[in-house]
Every structure is written in C-alpha cells, then in structure tokens.
Design brief:
This protein has 17 helices and 20 strands. With 568 residues, the chain is α/β, with parallel strands linked by helices. The strands form five sheets. An eight-stranded parallel sheet has the order 11-10-9-5-2-1-13-12, with helices on one face. A hairpin with a 6-residue loop joins strand 14 and strand 15. Helix 6 packs parallel to helix 7, helix 11 runs parallel beside helix 16 and helix 12 packs antiparallel against helix 13. It is globular and about 75 Å long. It starts with a helix and ends with a strand. It binds 6-O-alpha-D-glucopyranosyl-D-fructose and calcium ion.
C-alpha cells in the first residue's frame, strides 16, 4: 500500500553519496586511548589523519551508546548518552567537529528494532498497567501450557542467537519477543508512540550534527502475524529470519521516518536488511518513492553457507558473479551498498581470497578491485584496507561473541561435542572481524597499552598500518587509489555494469560504461596464473588506471592479479 505522503514525494537532489566511500569503525576494536583494553572515542580521535589519508568521505560508527554490552553495544539502554566505556557526549561532539574539519561525514548506528532490557522503556513496559505496557511484543503463553515451562513459548520462532525468540518475564506473567539476545527485546513499532519516540531521538542526533544513519536490522521492525513458522529440521524451532523480515507495514514506517526525520536534509541513510529481496531493496531505494539512500542486502554473504553461518564452504565464484549481475542490473533506479566485510562477517581475504603469506596482499587488492569497481556505494571495514585476516581460533575461551558462544553452548546441549563445532565457529565467527585493529608491529599491535578484550591476530608484525603507509605498493595504498578512482571517474560511480565470462571460475571480468566512457576490469581470482581467453575487448594498448602487478604479458594474469583499464 502506497501512502499519500509517499506518492507526493519528488526525486531527491541530495544524492552526493553516489560517489562516496564509507569507512566503518567498530569502536571496541579500533583504538584504545585510556588503556583499559577496549577501544574508545578518544582512540578514534587519535587516528583521524589516517582516515583522511585513505580518502574516505563518511565514517559509520558502530554503537557507542549506553549499553550493558550483551551484544557489544547493539543492546542500547540510553539512546541519548554515550557509554563510559567509549567516552562522553563531549567526546562525540569533538569527533563530529574534527571529522567535519577534514570533510568527512559521520553516520551513527541506529538500533531501533530492539532496545536493551535495561532501557527505561522496557523496565516500564514490564508493568502491564504502565503507559508503555504495549511498547514491546508481549504475548501470553501458548494455549494450554503453563507459563514459563518448556514449549510454552507463544510461537516456535527461533532467535538469531540460538534458542527460542521468546523470554518469559515472571513479573509480568507473559513472554516478550527477542529476535536477538534475551537482553534485546523487540520494540513494538505498531504503537505510534514508539515511532514518535524513535523519530525524536533521531532528530536529537541530527541537531548534534551527525550526517545520517545506518539502520540496524531495519526490515525487522514490521512483523508478520505472530504464528508458528515451518520447523528448521532437527531444531524444534523456526530459525528462518527471512520469514520475520519485510513485514506488511515497512513502507508505512519508513515513509513516516522519512517525513519526520530524513527528508530534505542531505543525509545518507542505509538500511541493514537481512533476508530482504532484490525487489524490496529496489523499492526502499527508489529515488522517487523510496525512503532510504541504500540498503545492505545479504544474498552474497550467504553464498558460502550451509544450514547456517557456521557451516562454511569454499567461496563459490561463479555463483557470486551471477549474484553481482542480478543486483547490479536488478536494483534499477535504486542504489546498492557494496560490501564484503563488516563487524558481522569473517575477513574477506581469508574467506574469498588466499590468506597465505604468498598471496595475501595480491588477493586482498584484487578483492578490493572487484568490489570498488561495481556500481553502488563501497564500504570499507576497519582493517580491510590492510588485508587483515581471520584469527586462528581454537578453543571456546578464544571467543567473545554472544552469537558464537550461544551457538556452541546450544549445540553442546543438543549433544554435539565441542570439537565438532569449533572448526565451523572459527571460520564463521563474527569475532574474526573484531580482533583489534593492527596499527603497528609492536605490543598489542599499537591498539592498546593493555591486553585487549579480544586477542590481537598473531600476524600483526607482518600486517599493520605503519608498514603499509610507508610502502607505496601496499594493500592500503591500493585502497587509497581505488577510492580516488571512484571520486574522479563518473564511469566508476554511475556506469552500466556488464559481466563478461560469467561461467569462468578463475576470472572475474567486467566492463562499466557511461556514454563514451568505458573501463574494463580484469581479475584473476585464483592462486594460479591464467591466460585470458580470446574474444575480450582489445586492451593491450589501453591506459591502465590501476593494477596490482607490473604488467608483463598483457594476455596473462598472475595469481590474484587485477587491472582496471580505460577502453575508450
Ligand atoms: O550476520 C548475521 C546472520 O547470521 C547475524 O549475525 C547478524 O546478527 C545480523 O546480520 C544482524 O546484524 C545486526 O543486528 C544484530 C547485531 O548483533 C549485529 O552486530 C548487527 O550488525 C542485532 O542488533
Ligand atoms: Ca578504552
């Protein structure tokens, strides 16, 4: 259903983000200024010149709000304050100012599908007589079941963090819904007072000077009917998150948010949308009727998964290329976010590339070439620009992430030995992305004076920012040049995308075309040299815009070599 407000909307002139590159900071792991082993805002302030050197336009800051830290800040107990772990409101004001001085915008993480169970709203809501009694998803026990007993949950919905998505609250005598941890109760967006409170909070942040929002699991705010779903085999629960996604009122809720908060302010807004579809993504980002600048979709990051993210297969390049084509073409007038990494994904060089010492750098660069020459807005996750790798996790005690630990404990309860679960955990865990940023080859990789909250990757002496800044051929400088290329070349920003050799497992080849301008991207995504087949556009004498290797034979790509050439 299209609301009146929506159909009256006109095309946005404020689409500066189509030529921008965003850098994500996960504050807990970026830089620790006060020596408690946990990254903080002052630590970020110490490294702003690094971001300027890289050339990014926007910083997306993962949550720094007051939080019991059950899910590292994605469980917020006060939206309008900063957790002392990270600093103060003065620190964030300083960050806004110093970023702006460097021409960099700041995007805040907006986590409003749920709050912490320690948020005042939830505490009030537990009282059925309170005005906020309906601010969360409260439901009685399943009919005929004793409240609080096994199987009495209102539906069979499973939590993204294992186990039932309902928690019994003895004070209220009812269950509340938590799609994530039991300390992250879902807000009831059907209640207009909830929406007003969220929009007021967003405007409060805009008045403080922030430039937009990254909206956490925003396509879960409109829920489907609260009924049982199909059982995920062998679990007794329904774990299919996509069944809870993109509920019937999404456009109403986002349309209201657009009108109350986002409209006409030159902002960037990106909706994180697990389980969303191409058609929905196109509608959320339509330049006339859509409500958001862009979305994070999840199809490509699920391509190497089995039953779940802890069952990981080798990266399927042909399937990935097919998926790129699907999204590059299918998003139409809408807009894509381009990402391989974030704080929830393992490191791309370990997952898609070859992280052995021989090919780590070349494969990190070539992955960057592939992502940064697509149409859309590229995101760089801290350390990705250095080619940081997965961590060699071995034992339960190595992990910190609630998703990983809950999964392990749940599997063990169901009878699996830890040794059977740990290898999958090591490959798929979000902790791979969360090891401390590798600033230098010294103690704690220059992240902190103290032992950090999650171990530093043992390869920090070979993979770190200080060394790479000094080396013009480093992964860092390759990223810097790709960002520059996006700024300089309209064909890279906006050109039409065409995939060549779609079925080739070792070559990724595409063109981008805008009017008379055309560039060709040639990439070897294997650890062996590959001769280019006949029939590709003639490129031997063309201007090379960026290359990972000295070019010897123009028709042969070394392992993980890539080139961007101007055809016209
Ligand atoms: O990647 C995932 C699919 O297995 C999930 O781990 C992830 O929780 C999902 O992508 C949603 O992510 C966002 O919301 C979560 C938070 O834990 C993530 O860090 C955040 O990015 C709940 O707020
Ligand atoms: Ca600290």
């Amino acid at each position: 259903m299209t609301s009146i407000v929506q159909s009256a909307r006109t095309a946005r002139p404020d689409d500066w983000w189509r030529s921008a590159v965003v850098y994500q900071i996960y504050p807990r792991s970026f830089a620790d200024a006060n020596g408690d082993g946990i990254g903080d805002i002052k630590g970020i302030l110490d490294h702003l010149d690094y971001l300027s050197m890289l050339g990014v336009d926007v910083v997306w800051l993962s949550p720094v709000y007051s939080s019991p830290q059950d899910d590292n800040g994605y469980d917020i107990s006060d939206y309008e304050d900063i957790d002392p772990l990270f600093g103060t409101l003065d620190d964030i004001d300083k960050l806004i100012e110093e970023l702006h001085d460097r021409g960099i915008k700041l995007v805040m993480d907006l986590v409003v599908n749920h709050t912490s169970d320690e948020h005042a709203w939830f505490e009030e809501s537990r009282d059925p007589e309170s005005p906020k009694s309906d601010w969360y998803w409260w439901r009685p026990a399943r009919e005929g079941h004793e409240p609080g007993t096994p199987g009495a949950e209102p539906t069979n919905w499973g939590s993204a963090f294992s186990g039932p998505a309902w928690q019994y609250d003895a004070a209220r005598g009812e269950y509340f819904l938590h799609i994530f941890s039991r300390k992250q109760p879902d807000l009831n967006w059907e209640n207009p007072a909830v929406r007003t409170a969220v929009f007021d909070m967003m405007n409060w942040w805009l008045e403080r000077g922030v430039d937009g929002f990254r909206m956490d699991v925003i396509n879960l705010i409109s829920k489907p009917e609260v009924v049982d779903g199909p059982e995920t085999p062998g679990t007794g629960l329904c774990y299919d998150l996509s069944l809870l996604a993109d509920g019937p009122r999404m456009h109403d809720f986002l349309g209201e948010m657009y009108d109350a908060v986002l409209k006409g302010k030159n902002l960037i807004s990106v909706g994180e949308m697990p389980g969303t579809t191409l058609e929905k993504a196109a509608s959320y980002t339509d330049p006339v009727t859509g409500e958001l600048s862009m979305v994070f979709q999840f199809e490509h990051v699920g391509l190497d998964h089995g039953a779940n993210r802890f069952e990981v297969f080798d990266w399927p390049w042909v399937a990935y290329k097919k998926n790129v084509v699907r999204w590059q073409d299918g998003i139409g007038k809408g807009w894509n976010s381009l990402y391989f990494e974030n704080h929830d994904q393992p490191r791309s060089v370990s997952r898609m590339g070859d992280d052995s010492p021989q090919f780590r750098e070349a494969s990190a660069k070539t992955l960057a070439t592939i992502l940064h020459t697509q149409r859309g807005t590229p995101y760089v996750y801290q350390g990705e620009e250095l080619g940081m790798t997965n961590y060699p996790f071995e034992a339960e005690g190595d992990f910190r992430d609630i998703e990983s630990l809950n999964y392990l404990h749940h599997a063990m309860q169901l009878g699996a030995p830890a040794e059977a679960v740990l290898p999958g955990l090591a490959r798929g865990s979000r902790d791979n992305a969360r090891t401390p940023m590798q600033w230098d080859g010294g103690v704690n990789a220059g992240f902190s004076e103290t032992g950090p909250w999650l171990a530093v990757n043992p390869n920090a002496s070979e993979v770190n920012a200080v060394d790479q800044i000094k080396d013009p051929e480093s992964v860092f400088h390759h990223y810097r040049r790709l960002i520059q290329l996006r700024h300089d070349e309209p064909v890279v920003q906006l050109g039409d995308f065409e995939m060549l050799l779609p079925d080739d497992e070792r070559l990724y080849v595409c063109t981008r075309t805008l009017g008379d301008e055309q560039v060709l991207v040639l990439a070897n995504v294997s650890s062996e040299a590959v001769r280019l087949p006949l029939g590709l556009p003639d490129h031997g004498a063309c201007e090379v815009l960026l290359a990972t290797h000295e070019i010897g034979d123009v028709d042969v790509l070394a392992p993980w070599e890539s080139r961007i050439v101007r055809l016209s």
